[in-house]
Amino acid sequence: MRRATALGLVGVVLLAAPAGADDRVPPALHTAIAAIAPASALLAGTEVGEDCGEHRARAQLVRGDFNGDGLRDYAALVRAGEPRSVRVGAGGAEVRVVPVWFVVFLGRRDEGFDRVVLVRTEAPLPADLAIALRRPGRVWDYDRSASVRLTWSGIEFFYCGKAAAVYYWSARGRAFRSVATAD
To answer: Is the pTM of this model over 0.70?
Structure first.
């Protein structure tokens, strides 16, 4: 009876996880993240601002096959260094910011990863940035004037409460492209 209850609880936890979310970091991915800069780490859910809603519940890491090669790829928001203080505005208020990189780690057959940096920015903590998996299918731009059809999974990148874009692999260009989905 206890075994059945434990299996039932595991099933509930697995079903409750956001699609594409994967807080488990394989050793090779951990190594690839650490190679970005000293003290690099995944942006934790606790470092994501309230405007990002449900994305605050997890580390900013998603898993998918982004380029159609059948290998496991990851996309992540990575804290690429230590926070620092900057002065903003006419009054010179001091704000703590941290470098954040939006990175795709494309899986290789040797179980390593090729790193593709899509966005480098600085953000105050908690950050107003988040990512989520976007399943294959049609994606419209923010005013529905144009669309693209994703053949493979894409990655939604949010400036929470402000703007969003879907990044996807272009087989023709052999590179990532994006479409703005919110402005």
So the answer is: yes
Q: What number of H helices and E strands is found in the chain?
A: 2, 12
Name the residue with tokens 């976007």: 134
Q: Structural domain tally of the chain?
A: 1
The type of residue at 18 is P
Q: Which tokens hold the place of 1?
A: 């009876």
DSSP summary character for residue 42: E
15: number of Cβ within 10 Å: 7
**Do strands 61-64 and 84-88 pair parallel, antiparallel, or not at all (unpaired)?**
unpaired
Q: Name which of 182, 159, 178 is nearest 170 in CA terms.
A: 178
pLDDT digit string, tens, across residues 117-167: 999 999 998 899 999 999 999 999 999 999 999 999 999 999 998 999 999
Rounded to the nearest 10°, the torsion over CA 81, 87, 93, 98 is -10
Domain that holds residue 172: 19-182
Position 45 in a domain? yes
Is 95 a member of any domain? Answer: yes
8 inside domain? no
Domain for residue 70, yes or no? Answer: yes
> CA 98 to CA 96: how far, in whole Å?
7
Neighbours of 41 (CB within 10 A): 18
H or E element in which residue 158 lies: strand 154-159
Task: Identify the bridge partners of residue 74 per DSSP, sorted by sequence position.
Answer: 63, 105
